[in-house]
Automatic annotation (TrEMBL):
SUPFAM superfamilies: SGNH hydrolase (SSF52266)
Alphabetical list of Gene3D superfamilies matching this protein: SGNH hydrolase
Region of interest (Disordered), ranges: 15-41
Composition-biased stretches (Low complexity): 15-28
Superkingdom of source: Bacteria
Organism, as annotated: Streptomyces afghaniensis 772
GO molecular function, one term: phospholipase activity
Name of protein: Uncharacterized protein
Signal peptide limits: none
Alphabetical list of InterPro entries matching this protein: GDSL, PLB1, SGNH_hydro_sf
Length: 282
């Protein structure tokens, strides 16, 4: 445009021949619609007990009203509430997460969620794939990847323009280091909560350290899969490891199990998700 203006000012015909010069009042071409809508009008959540708000409100029970993704609790200010408003979230957000779910369960949850035709689907899953009786029982990375790819393919086939927010798997080793400061937390962990990481919480010998480091490495591998698979979908946003990197303390952990997020922890997850979903991207 600057070159055309300069030629016009010099009295030159920028068009050539007998063609009329372009109108000075011509309207610029409209900008293409961005692939990522920072204000979707509906939200569906899939995943595990974290998204169900397990142990956030009462012992051994789901508390979906405290869910970071779709909950109505004013203390959490969930992603859905931040995007849609309180009334909009009540009408146009749905939670299909299931306590205990692993990545292998995600395709089935996605099949349920797409029936609502949501504009945004949130995904948080993977902790249960690492939290097994022993490290050898953890979900293999290849299976984790295959099930995640299958889930995204199914979603994309049903809803070509739906957006997907993918949260990283939390840092389980930090959870161990924070929760083990509580005698009550360690006592509860003995009931069988994430034994691959939290078993024998006070043990710091070479065997225990190797076990925890093996689980931690698997979590990092899961997050690499989430990042890589999401990057291949132009309407998918990974949180960049923000959930994994978040330096939570005991205030963000359930006072009943020192494993799941407390109401405060759910609010922090909602902040991370909202920041990712509404971020400007080049």
């Amino acid at each position: 445009m600057a070159v055309a203006a300069a030629l016009g000012a010099a009295g030159c015909d920028a068009v050539g021949g007998d063609s009329p010069a372009p109108s000075a009042t011509a309207k610029p071409s409209p900008r293409p619609t961005p692939l990522w809508d920072r204000s979707p009008s509906s939200v569906a959540a899939v995943g595990d007990s974290i998204t169900r708000g397990f142990d956030a409100c009462d012992v051994l029970s789901d508390c979906p009203e405290a869910s970071w993704a779709t909950g109505a609790s004013p203390e959490v200010d969930s992603l859905a509430v931040r995007l849609l408003g309180r009334a909009g979230a009540a009408e146009r957000s749905w939670n299909y997460a299931v306590t205990g779910a692993r990545m292998a369960d995600l395709p089935g949850q996605v099949a349920q969620a797409v029936r609502r035709k949501p504009q945004l689907v949130t995904v948080m899953v993977g902790a249960n794939d690492a939290c097994r009786a022993t490290p050898s029982a953890m979900t293999p990375v290849t299976e984790f990847r295959a099930d995640f790819e299958d889930s995204l393919r199914s979603l994309r086939k049903a809803l070509p323009k739906a957006q997907v927010f993918v949260a990283s798997v939390p840092n389980l080793k930090r959870l161990w280091s924070q929760g083990r400061t509580s005698p009550l937390g360690k006592q509860v962990w003995q009931l069988g909560i994430c034994p691959s990481m939290l078993g024998d919480a006070d043990a710091v010998d070479a065997t225990a350290n190797l076990r925890r480091n093996t689980v931690q490495k698997r979590v990092e591998d899961y997050n690499k899969v989430l990042k890589e698979v999401c990057a291949k979908d132009e309407r998918c946003r990974y949180d960049g490891g923000a959930v994994y990197d978040y330096r939570f303390g005991t205030a963000q952990l359930s006072r009943w199990d020192y494993f799941h997020p407390s109401v405060n922890g759910q609010a922090r997850l909602a902040e991370i998700a909202y920041r990712t979903v509404t971020a400007q991207r080049p």
